[in-house]
Amino acid sequence: MPARIRSANSSSGTGVLRNLxxxxxxxxxxxxxGLSRSELARELGLAKSTVSVVVxxxxxxxxxxxxxxxxxxxxxxSRALELDREKNLVLAWEISVDYLAVRLQNLMGExxxxxDLELGPDPDPSACLDRLAQASxxxxxxxxxxxxxxxxxxxxxxxxxxxxxxxxxxPNLGWQDLPLLExxxxxxxxxxxxxxxxxxxxxxxNTAALGVYTLGEWRVANLAYLSLGIGLGSxxxxxxxxxxxxxxxxxxxxxxxxxxxxPPCRCGKRGCAETxxxxxxxxxxxxxxxxxxxxxxxxxxxxxxxxxxxxxxVVLGGPLVEEIGxxxxxxxxxxxxxxxxxxxxxxxxxxxxxxxxxxxxxxAGVLAIRAFLEAQRSGVGA
Length: 382
Fold this sequence. Notes:
The chain folds into 3 domains: about 15-85, Winged helix-like DNA-binding domain superfamily/Winged helix DNA-binding domain (Arc Repressor Mutant, subunit A), CATH 1.10.10; about 90-205 and about 360-380, Nucleotidyltransferase, domain 5, CATH 3.30.420; about 215-355, Nucleotidyltransferase, domain 5. Helices cover about 40% and strands about 25% of the residues. It is built from 12 helices and 15 strands. The protein has helices at about 15-30, 35-45, 50-60, 125-140, 180-190, 205-215, 275, 280-285, 290-310, 320-340, 340-345, 360-375, and strands at about 65-70, 80-85, 90-95, 100-105, 110-120, 150-155, 160, 165-170, 175-180, 200-205, 225-230, 230-240, 240-245, 315, 350.
């Protein structure tokens, strides 16, 4: 994939301002596609001439495209602007506990192509990355040289340090202490896949939280996402921003102890939430009584989340939700109301993810898009 990175004048004041204006225009049209040049100028508080110059440059580079003429107004007809959905793509990779997935998404988060792969027992990290790179290369074939790969995000189920590209621990994969982003970079080079902005690594519950928040178009400030699968994780959007905590480990709700004398957990502790609420727990006791016990524990966990964070919305997703979500949800809601403070239980919505199994990987695509848009400030791709 060709990468276009030009940084002429980026060290000058003019270049810095130019890059900032590019980033602002692209981010605004990502959030509100269909604005005209005049509307962009008003929205951003910039001169119309400045916006026109930036838009002309972005149109020439293929990052924007013009739509139909907009009715009304005086003088030259206005045209709606939006990010080009055909030429600009990002890669989203997901390593889950029982499968691998690749999606090619455009800059509006829409999936162009995708592939899911089975994950065998005792998966090897290097082999997983190699298979993801091979699948990506196959998906990219036939798209032509006019397509630009703008970014990549890898989503994994474990403790990560995104700023260092390091996986600390993924207990349900049996992985620990891996320079995962460095390994990913080697695989991209081996398979001759060129990505314009540096790839990023993120926890799967975080990518899911951002994906469901952004693509689900929630008009709220605070959202919590619970990923219910082989394990149990959560991602938090607080004050409209993804929340990582001090070391990138916020949201490890699956290892909140619900019963210190309970079953052993793969993390080495006992009675963690994911020993009671997970696909593994359901498969061990797929009965009506088992469902009620699981819903009770989930309600207890939700009550702690509601009391502590006071979110507007809690979204439940993941393989367990795909399997029994409609049965589990009303029971868990009722249990949360029993255990939580009345005000917290009354004001928060508890809902199922509208994106099913793809919630995390769609969010990985969103993170890759956001990283590309932010990189425009420093002149990457400009």
